[in-house]
């Protein structure tokens, strides 16, 4: 049976708008939107979504700009611009690397650590709301499956411990 042009167009539109990348993007957008709203309500009106490229890849120890840029999949110039802004805002500090005087190490300041703690609290609240809406078991399974998928993709720009929360 031949499909009409309208039926083919409808199938194409559905395939383009209802697929894994779109589903992941919409889930991520909602989660992130709620994080930013929560952070603003907690007293961080200057933090923007673009700053997550730094915080999601920084960790609690010192790290170099080149490592941050690689992990965030942005240019060193773009990362440098974000770091200057976050340093000016008091969230990070850039120090001379003890092992290589030409390099800078990036670390969170006390204000940055407070932001990280508030961000983790916001994530926990949002995650709890999702668990109420879709079920705790289902959410846990989704997170486990995504973590395993990312691990199997062997994304070399992520630190080894990234996909394994225990190590």
What keyword list fits this structure?
167 residues, Arc Repressor Mutant, subunit A, 3-stranded antiparallel sheet, 3 strands, globular
How would you characterize the overall build of this protein?
- The protein has helices spanning 5-17, 20-41, 52-58, 65-72, 76-88, 110-134, 136-153, and strands spanning 63-64, 92-96, 104-108.
- By secondary structure, the chain is mainly alpha-helical.
- The protein has a single domain (20-153), classed as Winged helix-like DNA-binding domain superfamily/Winged helix DNA-binding domain (Arc Repressor Mutant, subunit A, Orthogonal Bundle).
- The radius of gyration is 20 Å and the shape is globular.
- The relative contact order is 0.09.
- The model has no long low-confidence stretch (mean pLDDT 87).
Question: What gyration radius follows from the Cα positions, in whole Å?
Answer: 20 Å
Name given to the CATH architecture: Orthogonal Bundle
Shape: globular
Characterize the quaternary organization of these chains: single chain
How many individual helices?
Answer: 7
Portion of residues in beta strands equals 5-15%
Give the overall average pLDDT: 87
Q: In what order do the strands lie side by side in the largest sheet?
A: 1-3-2
CATH topology, by name, is: Arc Repressor Mutant, subunit A
CATH H-level superfamily title: Winged helix-like DNA-binding domain superfamily/Winged helix DNA-binding domain
Kindly name the structural category. Answer: mainly alpha
Which stretches are poorly predicted, pLDDT < 50 over at least 5 residues? none
CATH class: Mainly Alpha
